[in-house]
Amino acid sequence: VELDSIVQERVEDHLKAYLSKKAVIKGNAQSNVFTRSTALSTDQVVNQVDDTSPKSMVAERILRRRSLEIRNRQQDWQGSPEGQKMIEFRKSLPAHKERDTLLAAVSQNQVVVVSGETGCGKTTQLPQYILESEIEAERGATCNIICTQPRRISAMAVSERVAAERGESLGESVGYKVRLEGIRGRDTRLLFCTTGILLRRLLLDRELKGVTHVIVDEIHERGMNEDFLLIVLKDLLPRRPDLRLVLMSATLNAELFSSYFGAAPMIHIPGFTFPVRSYFLENILEATGYRLTPYNQIDNYGEDKKWKMQKQTLRKRKTQIASAVEGSLEAADFTDFSRQTQESLSCWNPDSIGFNLIENVLSHICRNERPGAVLVFMTGWDDINSLKDQLQSHPILGDPSRVLLLACHGSMSSAEQKLIFNKPEDGIRKIVLATNMAETSITINDVVFVVDCGKAKETSYDALNNTPCLLPSWISKASAKQRRGRAGRVQAGECYHLYPRCVHNSLSEYQLPELLRTPLQSLCLQIKSLQLGSISEFLSKALQSPESLSVENAIEYLKTIGALDEKENLTVLGHKLSMIPVEPKLGKMLVYGAIFNCLDPIMTVVAGLSSRDPFMMPFDKKDLAESAKAQFAARDFSDHLALVRAYDGWKEAERKQNGHEYCWHNFLSSQTLRAIDSLRKQFFYLLKEIGLVDNLETCNMWSEDNHLIRSVICAGLFPGICSVVNKDKSISLKTMEDGPVLLYANSVNAQEFKIPRPWLVFNDKVKVNSVFLRDSTAVSDSMVLLFGGSILPTRLESRYGHLTMLGGYLEFFTRRSLADTYLRLKTELDEFI
Ligand code: CDP
Ligand code: MG
């Protein structure tokens, strides 16, 4: 145990020196980064409140004068022809009729909940009404209205629109602020910002000094930040009786929010939309004569295998929704449809989005339907980009010059953004491929056709939004309705749902709030980094809270990996992890990769672990695919290193313009490799921003060092570790929690008869009949010893109570004490330190 602490101390010193060196280079205010961080991040400093409260009579006179100036400028603009036109437009919005009701409610109540159809004018009008009424009441210079948006792109787009409606440019009375960007000026009184920005401001300024109104938009989405914000604001309201809070939501679950705030009054803005006709998959197949590709044609499965596979795929579905889908497919009555349609429906695979199907529907619209823009809801930007590429290279939609193909997602450029809102010339068909952000926060006026693939995922990995990445999952009925509604804005429209009606009927009513969907470990880190107090206590005050036992487990895990200390405070590592939007263990790998200057391969590993598997294993060519993968593994006993080699090879091939061929020969998915590539870029940008890397060269000084890379992988994946015992011709594996375990057939280590290292670290395990480990890497004693445990010794309950977690592992499996192990490996260790 003593020796253990010596080792730990040395690692700690090493890290300390390293981190503070990095911090000095970065010019960071935190001189000793390794002590618990209380210093503010640059972002927090940027967000320091600009205090606008009048300090003296002179100040008050100046403010009054400014207030009058603002008013006069408005009146001038309103007199101009464009101003007149804009006023007419604004008056035509459904919100206008409720203007007085809304303003009265806001002045008489501390909290008001407003709901209304998308496009009725909540976001652009309501904050403006408040601003206008404040200006009328000569409080134009002192009011300070903050309106939050869940996404940065809507904060930017909306502020631009509102400024335009007022004949101003951004930075006059209207501004915006998102992470790393913003425009606002001396006179800015209405600020659109992301929810995250307001949360961070609350950290520094718990009372929201000087703010008169907070408007929280799109609360029906139940984003994590919005739920967080509501808890904090609910606490604040009694201390700030003059502060006004308005909650705005699209769909009608206003009651929930109203009751959360003690029966706050609700105002509904009645809206008008044209009727929209719905088509489900069976109708689409019937109308277009299209047939879904059976499994056997995709992958050359034999006829038998096709049915078997299909049954298996359906059986394997674990989530509740999927079993509902399975049940409803079996129970559905498709007897009204032709035999061809019925047969085709049986080939429907709930897992695949089916680009062919989307292309077919788009082609049908372009060729046979009346003019009008098409809005396609897809799952994420990687799918959007692939489909866009595919459509551009195969002009299945007819004359390419007649089609305007656009993408709409969280990370598009502002030039692209403008094109989305513009009406194209006559005869040109605008097709917008969008993520679910086009459901409510963005309104494209000329949409007549909607194509809904039925799934959604949070904007995959978006470093700027700080959202962890999630897999596509089925949308709710409320979302489907919302998507359908987008087709009826200007005239009667049509909506094509790319799934059977019976599946629609089995969707849940509303989507689960993000707070209940987010991995709890990330959630706990967020709560800590936002300094919201005790995790369990804070979560118990939420609109809906996660189970307390799961919360406790997550806290325990965070302590084990060294992100939280014994008192549940964020450690320096934890602080960094909270800024990296991947699972904490993967974040830890990135941090260590940066510290130990082997970032490049580690970024590939982490990007790979946060996307799909790029190694494809077609059923009928399994042997070939396996040997292709084994080549990449190069008998290194690591799936992670195999991935690194496959990716590096692909990059090289791309440079020589034969990336496609390379993927084909090696059974790799180029789509996934591209996604990995883009994730890596985002990681690098992010690590740079949080001060962990300076430039590409230094952080890759050791990128060729196989041992070091392995060690860093071990640092991230511990305590995901199993012991390896080689018997003749077979390997027996054990974890401390499960006993004997097996490897997935896809793992390169599953093909080996002997693994020349005593441990495997793995990132994932799944219990089917036995426990199976996914991707794994073989590591040595010294790697586990040095990089495995948390730097601060964590007590292990039970009879290993006196040891660190790490010591417990070593003793449990090797029956050797930590000291023995240390002495035996001293020479090897010295190389590391
Ligand atoms: O928030 P809500 O969905 O209720 O509507 P909004 O975003 O305030 O938009 C109201 C109307 O303003 C929309 O129906 C559009 O006609 C128009 N609008 C626009 O033309 N350009 C924008 N960038 C935003 C809104
Ligand atoms: Mg809105």
TrEMBL record:
It is an enzyme of class 3 (hydrolase). Keywords: ATP-binding, Helicase, Hydrolase, Nucleotide-binding, RNA-binding. Residues 103-270 form the Helicase ATP-binding domain. Its EC number is 3.6.4.13. It catalyses: ATP + H2O = ADP + phosphate + H(+). One of its GO terms (cellular component) is nucleus. One of its GO terms (molecular function) is hydrolase activity. Transmembrane segments: none annotated. Residues 357-531 form the Helicase C-terminal domain. Belongs to the DExH box helicase family. This is RNA helicase. It comes from Lithospermum erythrorhizon (Purple gromwell). The lineage of its organism: Eukaryota, Viridiplantae, Streptophyta, Embryophyta, Tracheophyta. The chain holds residues 197 to 1029 of 1189 of the full protein.
